[in-house]
């Protein structure tokens, strides 16, 4: 039996059936509250949710945030002043922190030390005095300092006992506390990466963007310049540019000079990446629509093209910052970077250039540890930010 409706006769008008019931979108496609929350979330919120799933990136971000907050108050965090010398404790090894003494809870403390000189090797040997318990003080008065070179202060987060010593990372050849100098050196080593990457990004995005968008003779000239700069070995080029800076320059000028050098050498890779992306994106329909509406090149590049590969720029930035920190460390280690009285992690590592010093006083290599941790943290953070920049992927 045929249950289908008969076909209309040829030429007869078709009958239309329209429902007069109100439209209910929820009845068409019902969504749970969780699905509705994701569906209505903004792009920044989606990026944050995606970033939180990358646990290692979150931990790295917290670690770097703590470090950059610490450089704001490094005078307060350091147990000693940057230039304090303890001449009775030259090349003193790191002290161990104890909690219990003779089975009783005393709190964080260190044992006092006595120095003896080995007449055969002229090496200083330090012996702990188990009867000299020196409790560590917190939020206490200690060495005086100038907070950011402006405000006098003497408060420290941690201090040695009265007439005691606290060398958690040992001392150097002048009896200066290595831990305090590492904390002070973080201010220079961490900020030089941020300032350098800002200068490098400005050059890379502007030059690479114009070369990729316009092409022609400008693109040809830029590519030849990039090829020449990339063909020169990095270390000899660093040495040549660092040697140009006069010795009479102040430490601040040397700091900005090293920053400009690192920025000049790092923009080429970013410029080439930006150029290749813009060569592909400039053929899209939305770029043609913007051109027909009279938008200028700077607006098209900055408003429409650059955001299209922001994830790549974020990954490049997080990789370039540790590269600049390594560059400053290498230049300072070779004696052609920053100079005293400025203190950075690279300058601290110059104390360990001698093999004999490393053999007898290995704790002088401790400034290398924060360099490694910061580089790893930036790489992990870059992986998380790169994935979070494409939340729909």
Automatic annotation (TrEMBL):
Listed InterPro entries: MetI-like, MetI-like_sf, OppC_N
Taxonomic superkingdom: Bacteria
GO cellular component, one term: plasma membrane
ABC transmembrane type-1 domain span: 186-382
Keywords for the protein's UniProt record, in alphabetical order: Membrane, Transmembrane, Transmembrane helix, Transport
Localization annotation: Cell membrane
Record-level GO BP terms: transmembrane transport
Location, primary (coarse class): membrane
Residue ranges of the TM segments: 56-78, 188-213, 253-274, 305-325, 360-381
Membrane topology, as annotated: Multi-pass membrane protein
Keyword Transport among record annotations: yes
Keyword Membrane: yes
SUPFAM superfamilies: MetI-like (SSF161098)
Entry-linked Pfam families: BPD_transp_1 (PF00528), OppC_N (PF12911)
Family: Belongs to the binding-protein-dependent transport system permease family.
Protein name listed in UniProt: Peptide ABC transporter permease
Species of origin: Mesorhizobium temperatum
Lineage: Bacteria, Pseudomonadati, Pseudomonadota, Alphaproteobacteria, Hyphomicrobiales
